[in-house]
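> Could you send the DUF721 domain-containing protein prediction when you get a chance?

Sure thing. Input:
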Amino acid sequence: MAEYSVGDALRRLIRQSGWGDRINEYRLREEWAQIAGVTIARYTNGMMLRDKVLTLSTDVAPLRQELLLGKQQLIEKINAHFQETIILDIKVR
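Output:
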């Protein structure tokens, strides 16, 4: 029988159960202002993470354009914050 730490066992359970996206989505929502900044957090909503694609909604056209132009930097910032690759693409509606 293999021995695992509690953290390793939880990571394994999350990975095998498919809960990873939901947990990362929850953490992303909770930490969004810290990651993206207060102003961007204030004007974005409808955050959804599915299959490593983050979908955001905003009613502010200039912000939508800024998010699309800087999406690679935002992807890198999010992944650095989580210290793993949880986002591969961002879609802005």
